[in-house]
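Whiteboard transcription, Tuesday session. T.W. wrote the structure tokens on the left side:
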């Protein structure tokens, strides 16, 4: 079984808070046009996390 974790797109962010979540099993997007475009294409709502640390 392969237990290698792959970093999400958060790995390249400047915010230490976002980078610390880069290996979470969630397909997070940083606040960006890419996130809004994906939501528009898939007709989905935006779920906004404002942090908790």
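and on the right, the sequence the group agreed on:
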């Amino acid at each position: 079984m392969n237990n290698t974790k792959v970093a999400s797109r958060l790995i390249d962010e400047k915010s230490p808070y976002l980078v610390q979540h880069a290996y979470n099993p969630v397909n997070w997007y940083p606040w960006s046009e890419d996130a809004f475009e994906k939501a528009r294409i898939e007709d989905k709502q935006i779920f906004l996390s404002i942090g908790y640390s």
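Someone added at the bottom: Residues 1-53 form one domain.
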